[in-house]
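Quick review question:
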């Protein structure tokens, strides 16, 4: 009986084994980075469907939003790696903290989506914030692009929050950019705005575009 009590006492006195820092649940830094990566992917993908952000007279496409959030997420992941490295070395580990493959895959998707969006804005692409604004704070932003002998444009309805969605689009011959050339008129009525392109030597279709927030 005494031997059994002594053995149980010896077991109770044994120190707990150190826990590998890499086996611990992800720290707050990594969780925050994953959230930012998800937001970055959402911003980049929604940019393909006509989402953009307007701050004052500055137009920020979806791929730029995704790129900024990606950079912030990478910074947090670096901080997370530094935080994990210390405890791992103290416990005899290599000091390296490996990222889960899901986080790596998410980062690759964000890079691909943001890169594709950036490539679509390279060249003769211009953004214009038109005046005047509507009585309810609604504004119109135009994106114009030209390549060789073809031109195109899109009108975005931007609400007071600064978020804008594509409302209409058009094509023009000879790569002409009508808004950059001043060949347009924006008027507002009870039902929203009407963007009208004036007659030019380069045909545009269609020439009337309704925009409303």
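Suggested answer, residue by residue:
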């Amino acid at each position: 009986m005494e031997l059994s009590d002594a053995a149980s006492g010896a077991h109770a006195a044994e120190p707990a084994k150190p826990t590998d820092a890499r086996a611990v649940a992800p720290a707050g830094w990594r969780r925050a980075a994953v959230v930012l990566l998800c937001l970055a992917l959402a911003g980049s993908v929604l940019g393909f469907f006509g989402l953009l952000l307007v701050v004052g007279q500055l137009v920020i496409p979806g791929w730029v939003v995704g790129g900024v959030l990606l950079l912030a997420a990478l910074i947090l992941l670096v901080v997370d790696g530094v935080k994990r490295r210390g405890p791992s070395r103290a416990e005899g580990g290599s000091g390296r903290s490996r990222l889960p493959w899901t986080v790596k895959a998410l980062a690759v998707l964000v890079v691909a989506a943001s890169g594709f969006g950036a490539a679509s804005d390279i060249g003769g692409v211009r953004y214009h914030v038109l005046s005047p604004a509507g009585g309810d704070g609604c504004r119109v932003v135009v994106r114009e692009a030209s390549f060789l002998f073809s031109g195109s444009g899109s009108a975005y309805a931007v609400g007071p929050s600064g978020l804008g969605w594509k409302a209409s689009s058009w094509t023009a011959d000879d790569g002409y950019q009508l808004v950059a050339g001043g060949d347009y008129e924006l008027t507002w009525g009870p039902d929203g705005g009407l963007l009208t392109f004036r007659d030019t030597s380069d045909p545009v279709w269609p020439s009337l575009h309704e925009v409303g927030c």
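Why it works: The first strand starts at residue 51 and ends at 55. Residues 184 and 197 are 4 Å apart (CA to CA).
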